[in-house]
Amino acid sequence: MVLNLFGIQLNCTRRAFLFARSRQRRLLSPSPALTTLAKLDNAMTDVSATPDRHSAGDVIPPKCAVIEVHVGELKQLFDAIDPSPFRNRDLDPKAEEFIVGWAKDLPKDATLALVVDLDREAGLPDEAAVLREAIHEFFRHRAERYRQRLRELFRVGRTSLVIGLVALAGAIALGDFLATLLKGSRIGEILRESLTIGGWVSMWRPLEVFLYDWWPVRNEARLSDRLAAMPVRIRYANATGPEAWKEDWPAVSPRGERKANEADQRTLNSAS
Question: Residue ranges per domain, the chain?
Answer without folding.
Answer: 52-266
